[in-house]
Structures are given as C-alpha cells and as structure tokens.
Amino acid sequence: MSKSIVKSVSSKSIVEQAKGSFHGGIHPAEFKNISNQQSIKDLPIAAQLVIPVKQQLGQTGEVVVNLGDRISRGQLLVKATGILSANIHSPADGIVTSLSPAYVGHPSGMKSAAITIKTDLEQSEGKIFEPIDWRNPSNLEEIQSRIRQAGIVGLGGATFPTHVKTSSREINTLIVNAMECEPFITCDDRMLKDIPKQVIEGAQIVANLVKAKNIIFATEDNKQLSIEKLSEAISKTTESIPMSIVVAPTKYPSGGEKQTIELVTGKQVPSGKIPASMGLLVQNVATLHAVFNAVVKGQPLYQRLVTITGNLVDRPGNYWIAFGTQITDLIEHFNVDVNDCEKVIIGGPLMGQSVTDFTAPVTKATNCLIFNKADKTEKAWLTQTTEHQPCIRCGECEKVCPADLLPQQLLWYSQSDQWENLQQQGILDCIECGACAYVCPSEIPLVQYYRYGKSSLKDIQRKNVIAEKAKKRFDFKEMRIQREKAERAAKHKKAAEARRQAALDKKNDSDGKQQAINDALARVKQKKASVGQAQGVAQTETDEKKES
Amino acid sequence: MMNLSSPFFHKAMPTNKVMMLVCVALIPGIITQVYFFGFGVIINLILCAVFAVSAEYTILKLRTREPRTSIQDNSALLTGLLLAVALPPTLPFWMTFVGVWFAIIFGKQLYGGLGYNPFNPAMVGYVLLLISFPVEMTAWLPARELAVSLPSFYESSQLIFFAQTADGLTVENFRQLADGFTMATPLDHLKTETTLGRMNSEIFANPDMALNLNGWKWVNLMFLLGGLYLLAIKIVRWHIPVAYLLAMIITSFLLNTYDNQLYAAPSFHLLTGATMLGAFFIATDPVSASTTPKGRLIYGALIGFLIVIIRTFGGYPDAIAFAVLLLNIAVPTIDHYTKPVIYGHKKETELHD
Ligand code: SF4
Ligand code: SF4
C-alpha cells in the first residue's frame, strides 16, 4: 500500500524512495493509532506551572525574575549564558510564587532549580517579537538572533540549541527529520497532517538562512496520510528552495540523526564529524515549526506539541502544552486512573524515561507522555528488571544494532569494568537506541550497562585529564625542587670550600704546635711500649676519640 | 521491581525458551537413533538429563548461588542431551556420570556458569570420556538392519547398569554380526580398513558397511531436519552450519578427487558420524562460538575443514569434538580480527550532491 502512494505522487517527482539503508533495526508494535486520529488541540493553561531553569543541552541560564514578580506571557524568565544555552520564556501571565528547587523529572528524584508561576485566569495574547520578513535577504542576521532569542532547541528530543546548528553557512541540504520512528509518538506526524504549510515555511526560513540549495523531508512509509498532505502542500507552494520527500521503510531507529542521513544520502557521517561537514543540516519537524512561530508570528518557544497517549487516557491526541504544566494536571485533565498508572513514560518506550513522581513538568524535551497500564499479558512491555539471565552471546543484539557495534562485547567489557576495551569496541558510537535490549533473549538491560559504561569512561577521562595536570604540576615542582637543591648545593659547596681553605690556612699556621704534641706523644708511647696490650687498646681508644 | 529506565519495550524469545526449542529440535534425530540403535539411547538421555541438572544444582549450591534461575534457563539440560546423543547407546552409566559432571563442572561452572564458558561443555565431557575410555566410547552397536538383535529396553538398561544382561550377554555380544565379525561405526571401519591397505571401492562394496551406513545416514538426515527447523525459527543463524558443511564438502571433495580410493567422498562425510548434530547443534552453541558475523563464517568453516582432516589423518574415527574445542580456543582471536566496521568509521563517506 505504501508503495502505491509513493508511485501515485512520484509522477510529480516530489516523493521518492530512500536510496540508503542502515544496518539492523527493529520493528516494534507501533501503537500510533491511539493518538494520531485526532487533530491538534490546545490545552488550557494550568493554574500552576513549574518551569525548570534548565531545559536543554548545555549550560544553565540565569534567572531574570524575582519572587513575587508579576509576569506576562512571553516574558523572559531565564536568560541564556554562553553559546550552548537557551532562553526560557513564560507561557502565561501570572505571578512568580517560588524560586526554590522542584522535582523536574530527573531519574534520580533529585530536585533542580525551577520557577513556579501561579497563572492568571485571564490570559493575554502575549506576542512579544515583531514578525520578520524573512524573504528579505538583508534580514538573515536578525533571523539568526531571533532563533536564539526565542529559546529554540531541537524538539525531537536532543534539545540541542538550534542557533548553534543554524550558524553554519555551508549547508547544501536541509533534511527535515519526520521519521518519528518510536512507538506511540505522533506529534510530528500530526503536525504535517494539520499544519504542513507552517512547517514548510519554517523549513524555508532555515534553509534560506543556512544557504541550503534544497530541502528533503525524510519520513517513513507508515505515515501515508501525512506524506499525502505534505506533498500536496509542497506542490502548491511558491517557495523558492526546491523540496522533496524521501520515504524510508518503517524501521526503528530510522529517526536517529545518523540513520536518517544514511537513509537519505546513502552515506554515513564519519565518526567524530558533524553532519555540517557533509553539507547537511538535520532539523526535526517541531523545531522548524518553532522557528516559523518565532520568525513569522513572533512567538517565543514557551509551549510545544505533545502526544498524550496510552490506554489510560480518555482523549488521546496531540496537544499544545505550556512548559511547566505538571503531569498531575494532565492526569486530572485526561481522567487517568492513578491507581492503574504506576509510572508515566516521557518520550517513547525505547528511548524515553519514566517518572513515578507525577509533579514532573512538561519541558522542551517532552514530545510524548505515555499513560499506560502495565499489562502483564502484553508481551511488548518489559515489566521487570530484577534478575536477567546471562548473555549467551547469541548475537541477536549485533544483528539489530544500527551503529554496527557488537553489543554483547560492550556488555562484557562494561560488566568487567574494562574501560579501554570498551572504548575500543566503540561504546561512544552507541546511540542508546535500545534496539539491542529489545531483542535480547536474556532480557539484559543493555542500555543501562552502556550508560554506566559511558559515564565511567567519562569519569576516567576526566580523571586522566586531572591526573595529567597533576603530573605536570608535580613534574614542575620536582624540577623546581631539584633546581633549588642544586643551587643550595652549589652555595654549600662554595661555603665549604671557603671553610676548608680557612681551615687549611689555620692548620699551616698551627703546624708547629701539632708537631710538638706529636713528639711528646711519641715519647710517651715509647715509655709505655713494654707495659702490654691493655694500654695499647686504651691508646687506640684515645686516638679514636681524638679523631672524632 | 519496576523497570524505570528505557527501553520499556521488549520482544524476544526468552533464553530458557530458546534452549528448550533446541532440545525439541533434537527429537527427530533422537527417535531415529532409538530406531537404529535401541533403547539405550533413551536411557542415556534420561541419565544425562538427571546428571546434568543435579550437577548444576550441586555446584550452584556450593557457589552459594540461587540454583533455580540457572536450572530454569534449561542450558544444563541441553548440555546433558547433547552429550547423550553423542554417547554410544550402551555406555556404562558411571562413565556417563563422569562425563556429564565433568562437562558441567569443568566445562561450564568453573568458568562462572552460562555465558562465561569458553568451551562447549558437552564436548568437554565427550573428549574426557573419549580419551579416558576409548574402547567403550567407540563401542557402537551395529544399526538395526545389520544387527543380529538389538537389545530391548530391559536388556539395554542391564547393559548400562550391570555391563551384562540377565542371560550373560555383554555389549560385545550385541556388536557381533551373524558372521561373527564385530561391526564398528562406518567411520571406524573405514579407518581400520584403510590402515590395512584396502581400497575405498572394496570397503564400500561390503554389504555390511552399506547397511550400517544406511542407519547413520538416517540419523544424520533427521538431525539435519531438526537443524533446518532451528534455522526456520531463527534460533540458529545460517553462518556456522553453512560454512561448516561447505568446508567439509570442499575439503573431502578435493581429497577424494586427488585419490578416490584412499579418501572418502563428501556424501560419506556428510551423512555419517555426528556431522549434522555438530553442524546445527554443537558448533552453533552461541556461548563458545565466534560472535561476529564474519567470525562465525570463519569459525564454522575451520571446524568443517578440521573434521575432515582429523577423520582422515587423525587417530580417532570422529572429530567433531576435537574440531569444535580447537576452534573454541581460537574464538577470541577470530572475534578480534572480524569486528564489524562501526557506523561512521568506514573510509569512503564523502557526499555526492
Ligand atoms: S542479545 Fe542478549 S544474550 Fe544475545 S548476545 Fe546480545 S546481549 Fe547476549
Ligand atoms: S543501544 Fe547502542 S549498542 Fe544497542 S543497538 Fe542501539 S546503538 Fe547499538
């Protein structure tokens, strides 16, 4: 069926099959129908928002509001510090009621810096930026700084600050990542169905900015409706940069940046290089829409489209949700029976994380929330991690690894703390997709071992750096001590030399006296020579004493 | 305990089920063995299973581990069964006991248990027995059509437990043919006759040899069937068996072409001894085999090659166990040199536009 779609529109040569493929991959049950049938809706602003101060990769920004401040929708709350940082704006009018740390969803249960806002009942429009005429070539700098101002980060899950990626001017192709390969998640799919024109405009803005010559939308063949909508929108548009759609066979994790690139271009990103080195920029659908919002509507990134799904939700679908909205509010809004819900999964079931403390808020990284009753009969859900069976080296994991690693060897070296071998086996190339753990017959939580291995490796590298510095310091100190010692020794030698000289002079001086004493002693010796050994010994002792 | 860290999804056949299915796949071969060589096969299977599981249990208790989970992974059971089908059907029970316990203790548990053993445990036990009791270990009964009479279930158990039946018959009596000669396995027979200077055309013309071969052929075909089942349900991947069998065919073909009177044909090597059992059930033991795709090809091919070489030029009639153990030693080296190229580490990666 998917093939026929590709064919029917390929006459317009917009849609083509992916020319590349990547190693391995899995085909988990999709569960996408739960949430992709309904069109996008807004979620009313909750009475209280708990906004984490850090929501992206990189440095934490600086809080620029005070306790008790009255704030308006779109107002800056957290100011970016440094390049790898992003602004955070208020999604609502209201009052800052707390600046003390709150639980923001960290797996360890740790509290982090957060801004708590009590929101007003009446909400204003909250537009704070002037729209930019992005088609005017003289506005490029303004667009770039707008992306930065608006606090846009990669919304596919990585939360890498977008302005860093768009600062390149040597891009050939902008790849729009619409693979969305993880089960349950449908927000990008739904965006392409409902508002394809806005996504297209966002893509044009970015492509224009980075001087890309063409735009490729990369998607999977299980998203037929959005492919249709998108190609329709593309064929109607008058935008200047040519666009096409590449459709890959549905397979997890085709949405991984490296896998998407391999599917679209047939090439791999060389290890240690970034896609820009190949003239490529990959952006996720939601991110491009955020760019559209910021540039065309003047709206900063203070909300995002989130898939609300799972068998405990009464109205699953995709909703615009303000950052800081707590899961407790969603539980109430979607009539989730908390007794059945032992945990909520943030993100997808393969790479997401789970929380059991439902005060955790929605952040820039939250693309999906799964409220699912752990059905013991449903085999897909991994329910226990108590005691896994040993690795039997069956190689199933190797068969599915998209990074061409040998997960069983990574496991072996992680378990036995052999960090050097672990690095040689390429642990740093592991994208933590979880495909290996998905197929492992011994149900080994492989990814957890790799996370542990990676962090241990980083620790060691950090320690090595520290040790290296310490060694340099030590060497320098050694050198200094040696030098000082040598100097001291030279000084002493000189002094001793002087003393000896002095003594020698004195000796010469007193030689006459000494001679007299020696003569006298010789005489005494001669006298006593006949007395015997005892005296001889005593004599020696006296001599020794004299010497000392 | 709840699983709080991704992935939350899982879809795989659990290890214990994998092991169980391998046991199940042995069934056609086992039935054929029983048909051609009598009920001793069944008794051996039961003995081996009991010995293997009890050995595993005892050792785990001594290692103060919880034995239940390990027993439930069915790997000890599988080791026992694999050894059982490789043993002559009338082997004295205490030898079986020694072999199985040695396999579990020295072949597996002393290395840390399942997953850590560099050698195939069943083959460790087999080789110990073969070296310690070469006479008993090569005392196979003649196949059904050739035998004067196969021991009944009762007689088999008496042979196994008391070395003779109530009528005073020993294993040797059952091994004698109508003409008073004793029939060895076809591999054994070929070896002895070749050493005596006989030519292949003579040896294979012997109707006794043909009848005996027929039994072994069927046993091999049935293990092949079980193996194909494992391939079909994707428990065994094709690399090792295909490389193993191809290497055997090529090696024996070359030798046979060089001198067809001195060296047996590929068809003989494929359908006698433990060839098919080895190809699908023993060389494919994942724990002790190479773990990279290319490595598995090399590993399988070298085993197949060694089997023909040892059968032809070595001191023992069959060679699966030796070949497998030798290659087990080579696994770390093979794995080291056959690592797949990690994503992004390939040479040519420029982008055409
Ligand atoms: S899938 Fe699991 S048991 Fe099989 S080799 Fe990989 S880690 Fe080991
Ligand atoms: S988690 Fe890492 S090792 Fe496992 S399949 Fe994905 S990339 Fe490979």
TrEMBL record, chain A:
Positions of the UniProt region annotated as Disordered: 488-548
EC number(s) reported in the record: 7.-.-.-
Segments passing through the bilayer: none
GO CC aspect terms: plasma membrane
Residues given in the record as [4Fe-4S] cluster 1 binding sites: C391, C394, C397, C440
Residue intervals of the 4Fe-4S ferredoxin-type domain: 382-411, 430-450
Gene3D superfamilies, sorted: 3.30.70.20, NADH-ubiquinone oxidoreductase 51kDa subunit
Chain sites annotated for binding [4Fe-4S] cluster 2: C401, C430, C433, C436
Cellular localisation: Cell inner membrane
Pfam families: Complex1_51K, Fer4_9, RnfC_N
InterPro entries noted in UniProt: 4Fe4S_Fe-S-bd, 4Fe4S_Fe_S_CS, Ion_transpt_RnfC/RsxC, Nuo51_FMN-bd, Nuo51_FMN-bd_sf, RnfC_N
Cofactor: [4Fe-4S] cluster
Keywords linked to the UniProt accession: 4Fe-4S, Cell inner membrane, Cell membrane, Electron transport, Iron, Iron-sulfur, Membrane, Metal-binding, Repeat, Translocase, Transport
HAMAP family (UniProt xref): RsxC_RnfC (MF_00461)
Name this protein carries in UniProt: Ion-translocating oxidoreductase complex subunit C
Source species of the chain: Aliikangiella marina
Gene that encodes the chain: rsxC
Automatic annotation (TrEMBL), chain B:
Necessary cofactors: FMN
Entry-linked InterPro entries: NqrB/RnfD, RnfD_bac
GO CC annotations on file: plasma membrane
GO biological process assignments: electron transport chain; transmembrane transport
Compartment list: Cell inner membrane
Enzyme Commission code(s) on record: 7.-.-.-
Gene: rsxD
Highest taxon, organism lineage: Bacteria
Quaternary organization: The complex is composed of six subunits: RnfA, RnfB, RnfC, RnfD, RnfE and RnfG.
Alphabetized Pfam families for the sequence: NQR2_RnfD_RnfE (PF03116)
Membrane topology summary: Multi-pass membrane protein
EC class: translocase
Function: Part of a membrane-bound complex that couples electron transfer with translocation of ions across the membrane.
Keyword annotations of the record: Cell inner membrane, Cell membrane, Electron transport, Flavoprotein, FMN, Membrane, Phosphoprotein, Translocase, Transmembrane, Transmembrane helix, Transport
Protein name: Ion-translocating oxidoreductase complex subunit D
Coiled coil: none
Family affiliation: Belongs to the NqrB/RnfD family.
Spans through the membrane: 18-36, 93-111, 123-143, 215-233, 240-258, 264-284, 296-313, 319-337
Presence of keyword Ribonucleoprotein: no
Organism of derivation: Aliikangiella marina
Chain positions found as FMN phosphoryl threonine: T185
